[in-house]
Amino acid sequence: MEFSGRHKSAxxxxxLFKGVTFFFALLVVLxxxxxxxxxxxxxxxxxxxxxxGFLYTNEWDxxxxxxxxxxxxxxxxxxxxxxxxIAVPVSLxxxxxxxxxxxxxxxxxxxxxxxxLASIPSIIYGMWGLFVFAPFLAEHVEPLLIRYLGFLPLFxxxxxxxxxxxxxxxxxxxxIPFISSVTRDIFLMVxxxxxxxxxxxxxxxxxxxxxxxxxxxxSGILGAVILGLGRALGETMAxxxxxxxxxxxxxxxxxxxxxxxxxxANEFTEAVEDIYLSGLVELGLLLFFITFVAxxxxxxxxxxxxxxxxxxx
Amino acid sequence: xxxxxxxFTIALxxxxxxxxxxxxxxxxxxxxxxxxxxxxxWSFDYAKTTGLKLNYQSIGSGGGIKQIRSKTVDFxxxxxxxxxxxxxxxxxxxxxxxIGGVVPVVNIKGxxxxxxxxxxxxxxxxxxxxxxxxxxxxxxxxxxxLGLPDEAITVVHRSDGSGTTWIFTNYLAKVSKGWExxxxxxxxxxxxxxxxxxxNEGVATYVKRMPNTIGYVEFAYxxxxxxxxxxxxxxxxxxxxxxxxxxxxxxQGADWKGTPGFSVILTDQxxxxxxxxxxxxxxxxxxxxxxxxxxxxxLDFFDWSYKNGAASAxxxxxxxxxKNVYDIMEESWAKxxxxxxxxxxxx
Lengths: 313, 347
Prior knowledge:
By secondary structure, chain A is mostly helical.
């Protein structure tokens, strides 16, 4: 009797627990839906007025009240690509070093230092970028790029230390801790037996890493990269400080540009006219879509590339 | 128990707040960032003498206009005056509180403050992206002997919407047909050239850090950051140094009485010593306020500031409103602001 009573109440507890956790999970979904609906509703005036032209025109003229998102979308995508191109190899290197090469007493301090980097607020990166990194780029890096790679249209212009490339650099520095610490954790999960077998067959360290560790961790690495990409796409303050905030599309990476989130941070406070505000909200909606598409693509790739154990080496 | 006491203490403070609210212990305002240091100073001094606190959020002129329209604050503040038509539509009146100047600043090797002279057409040409090098003939011929470098000009502008930009572009649109057609004026515009810095401090930093740049900032920022300002030619064909006196000269020449709603724009003013890119910053209040007690407190505060705030304004590099303008202002308060049909302000 007593036992069954206890059993009953335990069952009720379970149901309650399930209900509560389900409610929490639902909350996230509801929040997403609400955000989407509000963004859509607020951007309706702009969608109605500019139609699809909003996506492919480059005019951003608050005086004439004509808006097009192309330069902001272009800046968002390109600065994030630069960041990923720089951050991924560096992060992989860090993760490999920490898990496979570093002496034991170095692993913890270096790992902690990288995790600390991830917790620095982005405004600090922005200020550091503006006061320290930008002058360094302007004096030492960009003149060299212009001199030796200036035959490419990518590296022409005045070396300001402010522009698309510096923004990409800062973003890379910001996402390296994310990608490298996640990748390190995944590398640590590679079964030692697999690696030992590799070494047992006479493989070098490089071969073990290339043929066993990285293939095993493939989907996890992709996940880490997506995490970084997500942060790069939405990063606001650090980019606003160094990208130059110019609504223009230039072939040169040295020239100033702008991103969606930088535009929002800059212009929201003084957007008095309804259509201006609505245009800004539509930019936000676009960012929502871009992030969503990037995530969806990533999920797809993860499921295709995930390690199934079929081929090693 | 300790928690209970804490709750009671908080409740006590809250009720105290409500009771004092009857005489408006706090007046709330929001708007322009440019006069924020000045209003903060005045409010500090005013609280010391009267115990009345002013809570001012410097969220930008656009935000200030929005907040006063939705009646969440007792007064709004804007750097760009509303037009008489807008004022009538929203049921607001506006009055100027202080005058400031926008100053072009440069970073050219060997050029010190006040050395470089610019004409309106040269300044507009630079910002239009038509004059691209410092040794361009159009700059060099007004600056003989200055030895300007053969370097590309980097134009710096504000990336955020701002009353400073409004004043600056309003000036450019007045002096250059090309600018009026291509960019026009507003709190943010479609810039033909250059990089954007966030806030006065953003522009100041860019100009300070990057060689061969030109930017524009509020005068106080130019002073605080020790930036190199230029001399600008005014309507009287005289090259003017930006000083509190030359801003005041721009304010004195303006036709305050004849302009409906005090929508006076102080750019390109005729006075012979007037700095050409000056502007007033305005306060917005309701003509028929819902909350008469707070409305009266707002007027009391600004009246006190007109009368006692000139010295602290000067110390912060602002120019107080001239006495003759203040008299016109008070007249309009007495005439236009009404509470239950009766004038709220008695002269």
